[in-house]
Amino acid sequence: MRVVIPGGSGQVGTILARAFHRDGHDVVVLSRQPQVRPWRVVEWDGVTLGSWRSVVDGSDVVINLAGRSVNCRYNAANRQDILHSRVESTRVVGEAIARAQRPPRTWLQASTATIYAHRYDAANDEWSGALGGNESNAPGSWRFSIEVARAWERAFNDAVTTATRKVTLRSAMTLSPDDGGVFDTLLGLVRRGLGGSAGNGRQFMSWIHYEDFVAAVRWLIDRQDIDGIVNIASPNPLPNADFMRVLREAYGVPFGLPTGDWMLEIGAAFMRTETELILKSRRVVPRRLLEHGFTFSLPCWSDAAADLCDEWKTRRRIRSSAA
What we know:
There is one protein chain. By secondary structure, the protein is an alpha/beta fold. The protein has a domain at about 1-175 and about 205-235 and about 280-300: 3-Layer(aba) Sandwich (Rossmann fold). Helix content is about 40%, strand content about 15%. The protein has helices at about 10-20, 55, 75-100, 145-160, 180-190, 210-220, 240-250, 260-270, 275-280, 285-290, 300-320; strands at about 1-5, 25-30, 40-45, 60-65, 105-110, 165-170, 175, 205, 205-210, 230, 240. Strands 3-2-1-4-5-6-10 form a seven-stranded parallel β-sheet, sandwiched between helices. Strand 1 (about 1-5), helix 1 (about 10-20) and strand 2 form a beta-alpha-beta unit. The longest helix is centred in the N-terminal third of the chain and has 24 residues, at about 75-100. It is globular and about 60 Å long.
């Protein structure tokens, strides 16, 4: 099977490319910066239809992850780059698929669980989940992420690919022990004694273990009867205070300093990021995956946190002994 991953040079793309390459598939990553990898990397600009379209023609599945990271300050230039990188890359991938002589059977398109409303009460599933943007209890600055997510999905829905099944992946944060990822960042706080609750600690954190993420993607490729929006998240989101407590226990740290809103604002400004990434309550559940029989290997955060901590330690122990 040929798997084409536009924007696949980031953490999540590398997780997928590594897994599919290990399975013996022909993996092609489309990247703005060519890299030396065990799989093929083809250059593209994410905007124009170029020679890269030849790898899409005849492929089995396209998994589009392209888009600038949102881990930055939302100034005017960064806002434009975030929106443009998602909408234009989705548009041009759709154009390549539409023009292919042998289009892929399946197009999996990245979206985000951030599209749902900031809420503490009911969980957001694909059928009854409330989309965000008009919450009275959320800062107006958070509307930008919703606008981006809506535009991203609209570009995907507007693409006419009659021979290709389309699935929107509304993904929660994917946690892996890789350097520089979300889990590595959170664990870094725990290891430094800063892994307490953020803000009031009530905001829900939706997450998925990277092995379950890969398994869900494989499952969706095989399930030709499923299209449309699918939430990619553990069925057990939990409040930030509980999430961080479980992570501290898994790593063996008894205490974590809590961080108030004002401290988060200062830290976010210093780290050139936004507090929305920490304070927004993302209570998302994967109703469609569960209803169609997908089985999670690590659905509970206590088990997933222990597994990730063990692998994080093992990788660094091996690296240290090899140095």
